[in-house]
């Protein structure tokens, strides 16, 4: 599973962090950081994170 | 015959319902019928970037559906869903399990998802149609965008979130902007007076003029051209110059197509906590058309017009519907109560207002962090909303993303 975030679109809502905290976090500067190749066992939470992104900036590919 | 689920409503709720039905194992037919000509798209940018972003200004509706932020991600699961766009569903006979479309088709279903959403209310005044706008659909946004030209006088009726977002966008487009609002401050009901007044001042500093405690009583044409709107007259006689009128006065649910089935349609479609319509196993509702009880607060069913509601309710409704359609599984234990945490946000100029929980029925409102002194927009101000000593909601205006998340976590722990 490959996760990409369009940082030009990301508006720091942080909803993904609640859906998939093992994959998405804010760093100390408040910028979104993410695991680009999370384990398949996290798929449901990653898909949900992409669903709930208010600006739909998250892409999930197989 | 292959069993079929029909989803009426082709926006976010319809899409998320289709995805969740596939995720939870529905292998029968899935048909989504939507009144709009476009496939589902994301509405929040319509009042912001779509109106003012330079790179969006020349894009057509077809191009905007793929514009960053407007484009909705669709899960791979829905590749085989049948999308029927530009088609209004005009009636349903639940006893016969059929819906009727405006172009004369009858669609039979085994399961039905009600996802028809809302439409904007209009002022009860006739005339000047081409200068009067609402903001719900992509086509609405494009029509408004074309009239937000530098120097145009824009009167926004309604000082809620959408009205204030449109006012901010119109100022950015170089328009002269007035907001007419019946309450004493904009966004008063969801935010409370102190934060509402602070945001009012913030808008005024950007050049927005508020007409508070006022309503529109008449629309008048230009002296030189009576067919063209020139003046908005308020209930106290104030005259506002107007080239463009935006009506942001709330919404009403699209439920008329369900008339005649004995349902409670008094404010959206009444559902139980499983999102079943009137206890039917084969009919569920999702999104802001659904009135359902949230045990996080009480047992009163309510409609909720937040962006996260379609996704939350679609998960719940999909599992309910599949259980209803597969009696063999009905022995499974009852699911846990559905108690989603409301979440909303609004971007106005460069400030984000983000809220969680219920903020509109507080008996006490308290500043938890920061204050309303100048600098609040960069430092952030955090306001708690309490009901009978329990915090039921929190709003963070300005500040940093991490600050906003911390308070959502706090509220989830409370709730």
Automatic annotation (TrEMBL), chain A:
SUPFAM superfamilies: 4Fe-4S ferredoxins (SSF54862). The lineage of its organism: Bacteria, Bacillati, Actinomycetota, Actinomycetes, Mycobacteriales. InterPro entries: 3Fe4S_ferredoxin, Fe-S_cluster_ET. This is Ferredoxin. Its cofactor is [3Fe-4S] cluster. One of its GO terms (molecular function) is iron ion binding. Pfam families: Fer4_13 (PF13370). The keyword Transport applies. The keyword NADP does not apply. Ferredoxins are iron-sulfur proteins that transfer electrons in a wide variety of metabolic reactions. Keywords: 3Fe-4S, Electron transport, Iron, Iron-sulfur, Metal-binding, Transport.
